[in-house]
Amino acid sequence: QVQLVESGGGLMQPGGSLRLSCVTFGFNLDLYTIGWFRQAPGKEREGVSAISNSDGNTYYADSVQGRFTISRDNDRNAVYLQMNNLQSEDTGVYYCASPAVGGRPARPLSRYNYKKWGQGTQVTVSS
């Protein structure tokens, strides 16, 4: 059974750092692009970052470019999101997701290209 499980969220002061983990089960991680998304209260789910399977290319939303870093460890079936210099606008539930098929979606940060989702982990940035 395909599963994605996020962890690592929490409460952090502005300027702080968190590292999110996404552990996958039931499929060959090295065949799939994995995306990180977030949803703030009252807002739509938005793409934060993605990492492709084949060439390891990474993609970032403008709002997190230079602050967040995505990486993957296929041997551990895991994808990570290192978040530095957190700001209040980074608050939300963070999800990792995989597309329905292997490879890289045409729009790696579009949630419509992703089929399987984790349960999410809460990130709250507040002083």
Task: Give the amount of beta strand, in percent.
Answer: 35-45%
Helix content: under 10%
**Cα radius of gyration in angstroms:** 13 Å
Number of helices: 0
Q: How many strands?
A: 11
> Largest sheet at a glance?
7 strands, mixed
SSE class: mainly beta
Low-confidence runs of at least 5 consecutive residues: none
Q: What brief labels describe this structure?
A:
7-stranded mixed β-sheet; globular; mainly beta; 4-stranded antiparallel β-sheet; 127 residues
Describe the fold and architecture.
The protein contains no helices and 11 strands. The chain has 127 residues and is mostly beta strands. Helices cover 0% and strands 45% of the residues. The chain has strands spanning 3-7, 10-12, 18-25, 34-39, 46-51, 58-60, 68-73, 78-83, 92-98, 116-117, 121-125. The strands form 2 sheets. Strands 2, 4, 5, 6, 9, 10 and 11 form a 7-stranded mixed sheet that branches. β7 (68-73) and β8 (78-83) form a beta hairpin. The radius of gyration is 13 Å and the shape is globular.
Write the SSE topology.
Elements: E1 3-7, E2 10-12, E3 18-25, E4 34-39, E5 46-51, E6 58-60, E7 68-73, E8 78-83, E9 92-98, E10 116-117, E11 121-125
Parallel strand pairs: 2-11
Antiparallel strand pairs: 1-3, 3-8, 4-5, 4-9, 5-6, 7-8, 9-10, 9-11
Structure summary:
The protein has 127 residues and is mainly beta.
